[in-house]
Design goal:
This protein has 142 residues and is of the alpha+beta class. It has five helices and five strands. Belongs to the Iojap/RsfS family.
Length: 142
């Protein structure tokens, strides 16, 4: 059984929020076959503790505003090395660069199918928050 479409849609919202906050190496894995207790793991990196918290906060905000979702549990807010947001059907991991390298979640789940998050390839081509597609297009033509 593959990840549910709603889980994938929610994870894409979370990934876009992380991308807007300048998180790096944003990936998602369909872990539904391997785990059975959740559909998707989203992993994003940040270069410092303050950014880890900001990314996690933005993800929570976007998911609440757009999908009326709140995490079942939130862990790691005190240390801000690895913030885990458990939404049941999917789990978000926002990790400090050093913690991500040390724990190697990407290596652990590499055999699971990756999920296309639909993130813009070029960060300068991504619309700014609140910017319409037409404004972004006009900006990119300059």
């Amino acid at each position: 059984m593959a990840a549910h479409a709603d889980s994938i849609a929610d994870v894409r919202i979370a990934a876009l929020a992380a991308d807007r906050m300048k998180a790096t190496d944003i990936v998602a894995f369909d872990v539904s076959q391997a785990l059975g207790i959740t559909d998707v793991f989203l992993i994003a990196s940040a270069s410092n503790e303050r950014l880890v918290l900001a990314v996690a906060e933005e993800i929570e905000k976007r998911l609440f505003v757009e999908r009326h979702l709140e995490p079942r549990t939130r862990e790691g807010l005190t240390e801000a090395q690895w913030v885990l947001l458990d939404y049941g059907d999917f789990v978000v991991h926002v990790m400090h660069d050093d913690a991500r390298e040390f724990y190697g979640l990407d290596r652990l789940w590499k055999d699971c199918p990756a999920i296309d998050l639909g993130l813009p390839e070029d960060p300068s081509a991504a619309p700014n928050a609140g910017e319409t597609a037409e404004v972004a297009e006009t900006r990119s033509e300059r």
